[in-house]
Amino acid sequence: MKILKRQYIILAMLLFAIFFPLLTQNEYLVHVMTLSFIWMIGVYGLNLLAGYTGYLSLAHAGFFAIGAYSLGLLTVKTQMNFWAAFVLALVITSVIGFLVGLIALRTKEHFFAIYTLCVGYIIYLVIDKWDSLTEGVRGLIGIPAPGNIGPISFQTPLSQYYLVLSILLLSVLVMYRIIHSLTGRTYIAIRNSEELAQTIGISTIKNKLAAFVLSTFFAGLSGALYASFIRFIGPDIGHTVITFDLLTYLLVGGIGTLSGPIVGTVLVVWISQQLQFLQDYRMLIFGPVLTLLVIFYPRGIVGAIASWNNKRAGRTKQLALKDTQKDDRFASSEIAPENQVKEG
Amino acid sequence: MEILIQQLFNGLTIGSVYSLVALGLTLVYGILHIPNFAHGALYMMGGYITLMMMVNYGLHYWPAILVSVLAVGLIGVLMERLVFHPLRNAPPIHDKIAAIGILLFLEAFAQYVWGAEYQTMPSPYGQVVQLFGLTFTMQRLLIIVSAIVVMLLLYMFLKKTFTGATIIAMSQDRDGANLVGINTSRVAILTFLISGGLAAIASSLAAPINLVFPGMGHLVILKAFVIIILGGMGSIPGAIVGGYILGFSESLGATYISNDYKDIIAFILLVIILSIKPTGLFAKGGH
Predict the structure, then answer these.
(1) Interface test with A, best of B105, B223, B228, B233 (most A CBs within 10 A)
(2) Is residue B201 very low, low, confident or very high in pLDDT (cuts 50, 70, 90)?
(3) Residues of A in contact with B105 (CB under 8 A)
(4) What is the pLDDT of residues B57-77, one digit of tens each?
(5) CA distance to A38, A142, A222, per residue, from A171 (Å)
(6) Is the ipTM value over 0.85, yes or no?
(7) Which of A141, B96, B106, B193 lies at a C-alpha separation of 20 to 30 Å from B200?
(8) pLDDT tens digit string along B126-174?
(9) Which of B230, B273, B274 to mutate to test the interface with A (most CBs of A within 10 A)?
(10) What is the pLDDT of residue A171?
(11) Closest Cβ opposite residue B264 in set A106, A122, A289
């Protein structure tokens, strides 16, 4: 019954996302929603690395910016076809991610966090200072909207909303497949204990590198979409502030959970909209929230709900023990997916 | 030649500030093995509190610094008690995120209370001094001398007093320190107090030649991380030497390579170091 419920929730969320623009008719809200979908894709990338593999990369905004600037520069300066530039931007981001990962992953824990923080800062400074290529602080203007695919054009905000939504759904699907495959299990094994993973014959460096490149790929995807949606980019998008924003979304939703990025991003973006008068001071609230969450609910909202469900399921199971065999089997099948989430 | 000497002098000034910040960072790392990302925010708070004491309450420069040192030290202690102590058994990723949360909060707080604009700190030591045909500003000389005095005092404290010895003991072996009856909680509090105080001294000294603004800690903290990796995480002499090395390479790099890219030097240095030796130079065994 629980599994059925979960499917209903997913279906309801999906339907809501599809009909959202028709329900509100408010163009601004659609804009905000599209933007949060774009962030979600980036947060998924961060989640794969920090949540599942246990490596906190603070260069994420840097790769986001590389994706955005690759697309921007290719379309604006070389007049390349949009989708060709889009694919190339993803390739560029992943290749740079591969090269950085090759060196960065030799370090561990604190060193990795500090190393990536510095890499992120280098990326930001290069974008900011390399005037002749990136236009520096003036930013890059006039990035085209996504090009047509066959007869479908993406010039209106509504069509862009659906484009971003479908790419997000695709990303979630890919993420789901990764997490629930042997590869995903391998990442979790590395997170839980790298030595142990090595002992049972996992090539940790190969897997960590794969996770890192995938994570930068999603950051690049998110950045490229951002560039084509906002159509103006400045060096600020590579600043560590953006990394911290993404980290906040992830932490609030639930690090190392599959639905965490969606829940966290929607919630934080929505609250930020409500607290618009705070604008620059929003961290006055989200900073302590981040700290408190990590102390009391390190697995965010989704993690808290999952463990609460788990507890309840455990209690019903104890009661059900007295009942028939059939009921017992039923209860254990209920717990199985919960356990999966908890491990994951 | 004159330019070279002038630049070496500048390097000495910047290096002194870096060393003080890195010292606080390395002390905390030595005791708790936390890379305190919020240390830059402590540095920033130090600058603002000194400024506020001078402008709003009309205190003289030195008493203002004293107030600032105490206040920031207290913030450090609160951080340890409220955040890092409860997280002492959590996975290492958690205290990094918690520290980032504190950093974001303090920055937003400073912006809320004091505004986002850049402010200058009036220093009573603006005079220009002529020495051996070279011109120095008094403030820069003051930075160098004060930093050295502070470092000497810290060294004496750690080496010659019993309380200082407990800090060293705990950084060498936490369990061992606990076994011989050292109150590790108290040592952790003390370390955060010193660490915050050092950050406040560094920023109060540097503020008159730089500016005071909410993001002033960003670059400094990143560079301090580079320094303590350079000098060995947790090593006190390493932090001092590393600070001066970075100070010199930056001021020389700014003159002879490119002023635009001088901030990148530190990071390139770090990337090279960690590429060659992933646990940092002079790493003390497997932490």
Answers:
(1) B105
(2) very high
(3) 283-284, 287-288, 291
(4) 888 888 899 999 999 999 999
(5) 11, 27, 10
(6) no
(7) B96
(8) 777 777 767 778 888 888 889 999 999 998 998 888 888 888 888 888 8
(9) B274
(10) 92
(11) A122
- List the alpha helices (DSSP H) in chain B: 2-32, 39-55, 61-79, 92-114, 138-160, 162-172, 174-179, 184-206, 217-231, 236-256, 262-276
pLDDT digits (tens, 9 = 90+) for B227-259: 888 887 778 888 888 899 889 888 888 877 777
Q: Is the pLDDT of residue B124 over 80?
A: no
Percent of chain B with pLDDT strictly greater than 70: 97
Query: How many CB atoms are closer than 10 A to CB A304?
Result: 15
Q: Establish if A111 touches chain B: CB-CB under 8 angstroms.
A: yes
Q: Mean pLDDT check: name the lowest of A45-59, A172-186, A276-290.
A: A276-290
- Mean pLDDT over residues B32-48, rounded? 89
- By CA distance, what is B29's nearest residue in A? A110
CA closest to B281 among chain A residues:
A111
CA distance B164 to chain A (A): 26
